[in-house]
Amino acid sequence: MTKDLRENRLKARIRDIADFYHHKGRMPSFSEIGDMVGIKSKNAVYKLVNKLEKLKVLERDERGRLIPGSIASSVKILGTVEAGFPSPAEEDLSDTLSLDDLLVKNPQATFMLKVSGYSMSEAGILPGDMVIVDKVQVPKSGDIVIAEVDGEWTIKYLDKKGDSVTLIPANPEFKPIKPKKELKIAGVVTAVIRKYR
Questions:
Q1: Which residue in the list 42, 119, 161, 164 is annotated as catalytic?
Q2: How far apart are CA 17 and CA 70, in angstroms?
Q3: Of 33, 112, 167, 170, which sits most exposed with the smallest number of CB within 10 A?
Q4: How far is 186 from 181, CA to CA, in rounded Å?
Q5: 2-56, pLDDT tens digit by residue?
Q6: How many H-runs (helices) and E-runs (strands) does the chain carry?
Q7: CB atoms near residue 139 (< 10 Å)
Q8: 64-111 pLDDT, tens per residue?
Q9: β-bridge mates for residue 77, sequence order
Q10: Residues 6+ apart with CB under 8 A from 27
Q11: Would you tell me how many other CB atoms lie within 10 Å of the CB of residue 172?
């Protein structure tokens, strides 16, 4: 069997398992995987599952049950697009990617917030955008952070100079904020999501 044929067969099997997961709302059992992809041998199903685990398509929980990996929310990557002058482009499926894998480094320590206000508009963060925030990432100067300043929450650039901390807006109509009493950094903004429709 050629490499292309093997890859196409593997992609078809991943698609079948992903379809099962999205339609039934659960992962298939080992025997269901065998029936679905036409494998009768339990050992061959076990090998397939191990391969899919290495590819991070699926995982196993502490009890050994299958849980979704990248199939949970994968989006096709079709290549690149020119943001300068138009150039010919052909649709070419180069991979699939889970948005969680792309945007979330520490799932247990990550949360999302909806943005209101225009103080970060020049950083490309607008009202209605969702920001992904990592609570365990160590904030450093230049990071965009979610902070509680004197009892009020805000999103700003962090500017640290020695012991002095200032929160800087990305809009000249807003003034920098220096904490008078208290500053708590809740996390570092790692991504911005904007939905157009």
A1: 119
A2: 11
A3: 112
A4: 16
A5: 777 888 888 888 888 888 887 887 888 889 999 988 988 999 999 999 998 888 8
A6: 4, 10
A7: 19
A8: 888 887 777 655 555 555 555 555 555 555 556 666 777 778 878 888
A9: 95
A10: 17, 20, 21, 58, 65, 66, 67, 68
A11: 7
* Interacting residues of 153 by C-beta distance below 8 A, sequence separation 6+: 146, 147, 186
The catalytically annotated residue of 70, 74, 98, 156 is 156
Q: CB count, 10 Å around CB of 156? A: 23
Which pair of structure tokens corresponds to residue 76? 């096709």
Residue 156 appears among annotated catalytic residues: yes
The residue to which tokens 């962090």 are assigned = 158
Query: In the beta sheet, which residues pair with residue 97?
Result: 75
Query: Does the annotation mark 119 as catalytic?
Result: yes
DSSP 133: E
Q: Which amino acid is at 184?
A: K
Q: What is the DSSP string of 12-45?
A: HHHHHHHHHHHHHSSPPPHHHHHHHHT---HHHH
Whole-structure pTM value: 0.57
